[in-house]
């Protein structure tokens, strides 16, 4: 049967094709947006951290109940931790991967005018303590560190006209400088036109940012290390790299050291947290995993409902056209031709539904952006969702089409 005759039949019996088309369009619109949201949640989970994960212990929420910790107390804690059995290195830090208690944001601008928002980590010796892999340039020299305290009333941050050395990630270097070598390049902060600026002295392969909601679309590594030594601060944390073979000894030593160095002054209502990186990562991604399971359930429900709907409507339609099918078989139509007819017919209806659904997905994403501050749906998710729905529609119509192909010619002759 030609395509024009098939379209004429569809126009003559428009109700069923319209219902299938609307169901496919709705399924496509939902699926495109859900697939996009699922990938948004998955990206932070699969992004490489760049850390020595099996050796890393994170300590944070060391808060004082009477006054800010002084720089001397913070460094004494770092020295005591580094001398604890089973510990290879320790660094006092502000901002650490998988810890959202303190986030440090920068907007960097390259000489080409490219602006990128990044997270910063402060601390002495973090390249070693985090187990980062330097792929270009060098680590900070001891003389390059400057004291930094978050309590500005008691901090003594020395002013300087020279650019501040920073270490950035390979991904960030590509975004800022393209194919040019990053080491030696200058960066500035757009909001500080008269600031000293920053100079890249090293590049690490990966370093996961701690603002996980932005660790998507290639931004998971938008991170820098600044040459800042932790000074006075109300709350401090440590990155501790341990010997995996002495994990139990090291963990016990860290707890004892923190208690000994800070215990008398620690706030009673804020407990210091001492966890391995794996434990902290599991905790930080809890909400992302819950959302992922929710979206997976929605996706499965959309697929099942769409398949059942297409099967039910197509099966009902086939039943109503049993006499027509029988006549075609009596006139010589083979089973394969009848089956192909229903498959092509469903492909036309589902294809039209997918076109409508992709437009609907774009509109729905605009509404979600307005009310829930979601990012724009990339265009490539729409054909992906469309192809999935088309394949699903063809699989769903397979059983009704086979039943139609098995209608014997005698059915037609009985009703004449």
Please describe what this structure looks like.
- It is a single chain.
- The chain has 12 helices and 13 strands.
- Strands 1, 2, 3, 4, 5, 7, 8, 9, 10, 12 and 13 form an 11-stranded mixed beta sheet that branches.
- The chain folds into 2 domains: 172 residues, no CATH class; 200 residues, no CATH class.
- With 416 residues, the chain is an alpha+beta fold.
- 39% of the residues are buried.
**Termini gap:** 22 Å
Number of strands: 13
Shape: elongated
What is the assembly state of the chains in this entry?
Answer: single chain
What is the arithmetic mean of pLDDT? Answer: 86
Task: Count the DSSP helices.
Answer: 12
Largest sheet: 11 strands, mixed
Q: Helical content, roughly?
A: 40-55%
What series of H and E elements makes up the topology? HHEHEEEHEEEHEEEEEHEHHHHHH
Low-confidence stretches: none
Q: Domains counted in the coordinates: how many?
A: 2
Q: Given the helix and strand composition, which structural class is it?
A: alpha+beta
